[in-house]
Design brief:
- The strands form five sheets. A five-stranded antiparallel beta sheet has the order 2-11-10-6-7, sandwiched between helices. The chain has a four-stranded antiparallel beta sheet with strand order 1-3-5-8, with no helix packed on it.
- With 333 residues, it is α+β, with helices and mostly antiparallel strands.
- Helix 6 runs antiparallel to helix 7.
- It folds into two domains: 190 residues, Sandwich (Immunoglobulin-like); 114 residues, no CATH class.
- A hairpin with a 4-residue loop joins strand 17 and strand 18.
- The radius of gyration is 29 Å and the shape is elongated.
């Protein structure tokens, strides 16, 4: 049986500590220990129902002078009272420590790793851990005595830049489900969100000392990007995966893979030149896509953003550095 009013009241009560104490609180770096000031408790739906049943039993036993009714009422009330301390102790003294936040592209999920340590000599059971803004994503964990666990949570990103890890909620209804004990944790950790790569990119430009050349070829060169289909293009070069994602009613329903052969020099990705023709976010997305293409083919490339010039190189570390520069482009130091 559902009680909408009771459910709303419980949600309002459970969210009250966050509204009073947590919304304006800054992220907490380092290890956090859950003490009695950080743990909140409130009866669950089952707990409120039990309170109502006990009240009815008590009134009935009083009116009819039922000794067995009094015994039953106070026995159940005593068990429920003990469960309050058990639920509180299930969270008390846990040590929370941020581990890592995976850098990712805008629109993708970042894997956030958190360490939860149980320093006590008794196990902790059925602790639900998840985001405060997305409670449906919570997962249950048991923590053995004097040990720790690594919790992995997926955080969906929407925009490039620094992404502050949001508030984490720890809930438990242990042992009888009559009481909800919970705590909030605001980890002092960030993830870097790269610009989302452009889905269809033009040929990668080649820049150098003026003697370098690049030639677009049908095949046999390095993959350079995707462009709209032109009459005369080979059917073997059609980009079927990208075509499948397009709207069939689109005027550019066919796409062709483009390859380029370089005859010398190095590739320098010049963000500033793109900004003259494209919006900032579109230019960043295009350069990010070019970086992934060049990295896939293990080609050396540099990056020029106006104030910063990265010499040509290759490898995962170089790609990560360039993508981070794009992610933080325009950020005031």
């Amino acid at each position: 049986m559902e009680f909408p009013l009771l459910s709303k009241l419980q949600h309002w009560i459970s969210d009250l500590p966050a509204k009073l104490f947590w919304i304006k609180r800054a992220p907490e770096p380092g290890t956090v220990i859950l003490n009695q000031k950080r743990i909140y408790t409130v009866p669950s739906k089952s707990g409120w129902m039990l309170v109502l049943v006990l009240l009815i039993l008590f009134v009935t036993s009083t009116n009819y002078n039922l000794n067995l009714g009094f015994i039953l009422t106070f026995t159940i009330a005593g068990i429920a009272f003990v469960s309050v301390f058990q639920g509180f102790a299930n969270l008390a003294s846990l040590e929370l420590e941020p581990v890592s936040a995976e850098n990712t592209f805008a629109g993708d999920s970042s894997t956030v790793r958190l360490r939860i340590r149980n320093p006590g000599k008794r196990a902790r059971y059925a602790i639900w851990i998840g985001w405060r803004h997305a409670p449906e994503q919570k997962q249950a964990y048991d923590i053995p005595p004097e040990s720790d666990i690594i919790v992995e949570l997926e955080l969906l990103t929407t925009a490039r830049g620094r992404c502050q890890i949001p508030i984490v909620t720890l809930n438990t209804w242990f042992p009888l489900g009559l009481l909800r004990a919970w705590s909030y944790w605001y980890p002092g950790m960030q993830a870097i969100v790269y610009p989302a790569p452009e889905a269809v990119t033009p040929q990668i430009p080649l820049s150098g000392d003026g003697e370098n050349e690049s030639t677009t070829v049908a095949s046999g060169g390095d993959f350079s990007g995707i462009r709209p289909y032109r009459p005369g293009d080979s059917l073997k070069q059609l980009a079927w995966k990208q075509i499948a994602r397009l709207n069939p009613d689109s005027s550019n329903a066919l796409l062709t893979k483009e390859y380029v052969q370089h005859t010398g020099g190095e590739t320098v990705l010049d963000l500033q030149s793109l900004l003259h023709a494209l919006a900032t976010e579109q230019a960043l997305s295009r350069v990010a896509a070019w970086i992934l293409q060049l990295e896939k083919h293990n080609m050396a490339y540099g990056l020029h953003t106006g104030d910063l010039h990265i010499p040509a190189s290759a490898g995962e570390e170089h790609a990560r550095r360039c993508l981070e520069i794009l992610a933080l482009y325009g950020e005031r130091s």
